[in-house]
Amino acid sequence: MNVFRILGDVSHLLAIIILLLQILKSKSCAGISGKSQILFALVFTTRYLDLFTTFISVYNTVMKVIFLICAYITVYMIYVKFRKTFDSENDSFRLEFLLVPVTGLSFLENHSFTPLEILWTFSIYLESVAILPQLFMISKTGEAETITTHYLFFLGLYRALYIANWVWRYYTENFYDQIAVVSGVVQTIFYCDFFYLYVTKVLKGKKLSLPMPV
Question: Is residue 27 left, alpha or beta, with left meaning phi > 0 and alpha meaning psi from -120 to 50?
Fold first, then answer.
């Protein structure tokens, strides 16, 4: 395990903690896409089924369990505990537009045609597009709360650090996973415009706002 992967995991965990603290502190999930959080919970569930079959390390197991618990706590906060504050009208992205092609692709392009491998591949493909409902919601409302932008920044940073991790592993271990790398690059591309706005606006104390769709 190298420093890029550890920093990536820390960034990912920090993003989730920021989101949970935002919800708990404000007692509101306004501006947060519940659909994106459902997709992330599905990502972790299908990816970490190997918890029941394979032990890699204490660190690996603990991180997987933490991500699973946090994902379902977030979904519970949005759809149960603070459901009255949930903006369902603007969280209107059609999930079938992501789930159907991702499911089909995971059957067509995978490392081996076994249930666990197909589900792992499904999770990789789904993670690359799971943030789209959140970005769609921001584009629809025209703005995002500062804490939400911090969450998105660290989520994007996690993917960028994992790209560095893959580059490092390629040069030091001659390891290359095409499915993970391509999906990670696609996901990072989705964050590019957001990174620019984050640096030019949010870090200067301005609220992130976007042009309203016509």
Answer: left
Predicted local confidence at residue 46, as pLDDT: 96
Residues 60 and 150: their CA atoms lie apart, in Å, by: 25
User: What is the Cα–Cα distance from 192 to 116, expressed in whole angstroms?
Assistant: 32
Task: Name the phi and psi angles at 213, rounded to 5.
Answer: -65, 145
d(CA 37, CA 180): 21
- Cut 0.85: pTM above it: yes
Alpha carbon 211 to its chain's center: 24
Handedness of CA 79, 82, 84, 90 (dihedral sign): negative
Q: Is 178 exposed, middle or buried (0-12, 13-18, 19+ CB in 10 A)?
A: exposed
Question: Which CA distances in Å does 165 have to 32, 145, 171, 192, 212?
Answer: 29, 30, 10, 19, 37
Question: Is 195 strand, coil or helix?
Answer: helix
Q: Judge whether 71 and 127 are in contact, CB under 8 Å.
A: no
Q: Which helix (H) or strand (E) holds 17?
A: helix 3-26
Instruction: State which residues of the chain have pLDDT below 50.
Output: 212-214
Q: What was the pLDDT predicted at 213?
A: 47
Give the integer Cα–Cα distance in Å for 129 and 86. Answer: 22
Tens-digit pLDDT profile for residues 54-76: 898 999 999 999 999 999 999 99
